[in-house]
Amino acid sequence: MASLSYRSAIRIASRELRFSRGKFFFVILSVAIGVAALTGVRGFSSSFRAALLDRARSIMAADLSARMFHQPTPAEQKGLDEIAAESVQMTPVTELLSMASSAKTLDPLLVSLKAVDPTLYPFYGDVDLNPAGKLRDFLKNDTVVVADDLLVRLRLNVGDSLKIGSRALRIAAVVTNEPDRLSGNFATGPRVFITQKGLDSSGLLAPGSHAGQRYLFKLPKPTNGDPISDKAVADLKDRLEKLLPEAQITDYRETNPALTQGLDRATSLLSLMSLVALVLGAVGVAMAMRAHLEQRLDTIAIMKSLGAGSGEIIRIYLIQTLLLGLMGGLIGVAVGGFVQMAFPYFLGKLLGVPTVMHLQIRTVLTGLAVGILTTLLFTLPPLLDIRTVRPILILRRAVDEVSDPFFTALWKRVTKNVAQIAAVVLILVGLAAIATTLSDSAMVGRVFSLGLVVVLAVLLAACAALLAGLRVFLARTRLHLPSAVRHGLANLYRPGNPSAALLAAVGLGVMQIMAIFLVQQAVVKDLHLSSAPNLPNVFLVDITSSEVDGVRKLLKLQPSVTSEPELLPVVSSRIIAIDGVPATEVKLKNFPRRMLQTISLTSFTAAPEGTNVVEGKWWPASEDHPVVAISQRQAERLGVQVGSKVTFAAQDAQIVATVVALTKADGQHTYSRAEFILPPAVLKGLPVVWYGGVHVDPQRVGELQRSLYQNYPTVTVINVAQVLETVRTVVVQIIYVIQFLAAFSVFAGIVILASAIAGTRYRRVREVVVLKTLGATRARIAAVFSIEFAVLGLVAGLVGVAFANVITRVLLGRMSVPYHFYVSWSVIAVLATAAVTVLTGWGASFRVLSQKPLEVLREE
Amino acid sequence: MIAVEGLRKSIRNGARTVDILKGIDFTVPAGQFVAIMGSSGSGKSTLLGLLAGLDTPSAGDVRLNGTAISYLPEDKLARVRGRTVGFVFQSYQLVPTLTALENVLLPYELNVEGSERDGEQRARELLESVGLSGRLDHYPVQLSGGEQQRVALARAFILRPPIVLADEPTGNLDSANGSHVLELLLRLNRVEGTTLVLVTHDPVLAGYADRRIVLRDGIVIADELQQPAELAVR
């Protein structure tokens, strides 16, 4: 059977595009903005995320670390060699306590030795030295690099000799910051860096020595320039956990909860923004295409009367849609690319992030494909309507009206519109698929798609109810209302007016824009809390009970100290049994058995600041039974649950404590180090050592160190100020980027919505002409339109804002961020929607209003 | 040949049902020129729409060259229509985004398998025969009403359809242009040997037909053969 060739279909489609450039401008604009936002936000966020993750990695100095207390067995070594053969870099870091002495005075001092291979360590981040330089240039087999307080305590200078074990080594530089300070032991004594060979030759590593070993791993970067994927890290972690069952394997995301949580939330939010941009663009396209096809009814009827089947006509408009999607997509990708390049330029000074921007081909292609796909999906229902266009239209405008009983009519509608219903289902499935593919967070994808379905259903119901209500209202009040109001309201339910579709589109848009805004507000607020400038950044180790009050006083008197000291009582103990199984036989999961010998117990009456109970319940203040709260992470490794019984031994006492709560700490407080907490009454009488944490002006840590040393020479000061400063700046950067991109998404959303409203102006031409012919002034017509648009905007705003709050609540709940309802923002949003609707309605109708009636009538 | 049997059409308008055609029967032999007359609202255009299969009757049947078309599925009907019927409408109904030549060629592209060259040749000849050889690449908006209707005439005949249906073809034109279009229509009809059904309320126009069917309130009140008037050749 003959049918319209693709060549002819393309010709007709492209000719129409050329003839109605003005109209299609809005379609292309919608797709372009949607795709631009998608490409820009996604591309930028992936580059930014990669840069931030690199900084997160610097806190571990690696992608993964394996902490163990034994040399690898031959089988383990073989497995490690296999991993190394796959281009995974590996370097050992050995930490142990040792005595060091000045070669001059022979004063001994307990130091915290760290042996590394300076040609590999650190894989990420830098060891900051004074004088400035690379670790590998200073740290040789005959030198050491030491912390400032070692020089203070031993009255040494750079260049002097330090005796460690049997060797004298030259002090080559002072270490001011080591990237992985937070992941190592908080051991007593100043830091001394030594090479692995230097350590070997010192004779300290005798069999049975208490050295802790960490292996650092670095995955190879993919050759296509992508960042190392989370999956690759997780895969290696699984492999290492199996290979080294006695080792504690940690990946870089676990080192600082604030940082990784910030990143995760940013990822969720950015995914949400991408999706919103996309759906808003698609809504714009659907609105514009519907308007366009309604205007093409005559042409469609002509073609049908000349023998064209619906399939052939659909082919023409499908090609047109594809061309529009392609054009919009290309423009969008170009703009998105520009935006992506421009973001760092605008944000560069503000952030100081060395983000390396490169336009990823995958991002570009995804943007383009998604642009075309959503355009197609969303134009499917209007395209399918082509099938119902009756060619008799060219002879007679009157259309049959159906007056069947409600259910018969409904059934007829359902059976007649099977294809449309299938199209809607297809759209939703397609959207969910796109959402899940695009969204790095499957949760956001799911909530988003589900939310969309519910919102659409409710919006359509709201539209139907509103229109029905209006009809009743107008029937009752008809002649009592001013005529402009009457006309404006009547316009909303006039047959052929797309108010239901427009209401749904605007409501949906408002919901999405508002949801982004609200989620962004809440996330940013929460991030501000976790990046608060007053969190402890200097830790104090080994304060005796007799010193603790003095230390507290001293800290309070120090001008460089800007927070209340957090002090933590610690009782040294060991675990001798879990649920009655002796420690030697307990099944552990990546928990070095030797660590059972060094368990720090703490006592608190209530959960300390920054620590949350995730399972079970905290005890009452008066509790004196042996109960324990264990950090969730350690509980998993030890294989204990709420209700398990853990037997601790401290000095001569044995405590059989029931696990009543599992906790999760924010990693921001000194208290986060408390992984086994018991009621104070239970630990009473046992010897206590105190650990402390305090926030010190990062520039003045040295002052505090000297002052503490003078008064309490046995207290060790561990300075993580610079590391935490890194964390804080990264979180602050995340905040800036979230705010910036959210503003961009909200702006893009408003432009798309405005263009969707503007796209309806072509339908108004005829109405305006008729009214003008009958003597209506432009002001009167503008008043009628204003009322129509204001009602539309108010209803859409109300429904949109209500749903935005519901969706925000669900999303924030899943992100564990507290939700608050802001009345003021909600009211502003509703009013702003009405204002934007009225303004764009005016703007779009301006040209229509100034058209001479005859111009239009002649075209008819 | 066109056969109409018991044709009825009602449309619902709110709670009201309007019977537009109340039972029409007639047969048009091949090659006959029939004028369907009637005042506004008599059901002329509805009848024409049903004859062309542009709409579905409420009852009764229409057969075009032996094929019952009234209850065919939409796409099949489109095919039958494309191959069997040529249309000329009062308001021309050209596709605004196609040139004169492309408009004429459109039915060919929609209905004929094979090279468009042959179709293009025929379209050019037809446009030349209606005096538009210099306007091939003009868009409808660049043509006068008379010219647009001449393009529509050429389009109606491109596939050599056995039946041509015309709805007030001169209704939107001044008398000079109207006569010209009518003359061309009759000449093409004669040359191509088609059955021509023309809907009009103009008795002068109806005078050129072989047969006159008059409708009033949805029924045939007169159906008579007549001696067609001679058109003054310009």
The main sheet of chain B comes to: 6 strands, mixed
Identify the CATH homologous superfamily of chain B: P-loop containing nucleotide triphosphate hydrolases
Number of domains of chain B: 1
- End-to-end CA span of chain B: 31 Å
CATH-defined fold name of chain B: Rossmann fold
Word description of this protein:
The complex is a heterodimer of chains A (860) and B (234). Chain A is α+β, with helices and mostly antiparallel strands and 860 residues long. Chain A folds into 3 domains: 6-53 and 260-530 and 729-859, no CATH class; 60-255, no CATH class; 538-722, no CATH class. Chain A is built from 25 helices and 21 strands. In chain A, strands 2-3-8-5-7-6 form a 6-stranded mixed barrel. In chain A, strands 12-14-19-16-18-17 form a 6-stranded mixed beta barrel. In chain A, helix 13 (418-438) crosses helix 14 (442-477) and helix 14 crosses helix 15 (483-493). By secondary structure, chain B is α/β, with parallel strands linked by helices. Chain B has one domain: P-loop containing nucleotide triphosphate hydrolases (Rossmann fold), CATH 3.40.50. Chain B has a 6-stranded mixed sheet. A 4-stranded antiparallel sheet of chain B has the order 2-1-4-5, covered by helices on one side. In chain B, helix 3 packs across helix 4. The longest helix of chain B is centred in the last third of the chain and has 18 residues, at 175-192. The radius of gyration of chain B is 17 Å and the shape is globular. The two termini of chain B are 31 Å apart. The interface between A and B is large, with 38 and 40 residues.
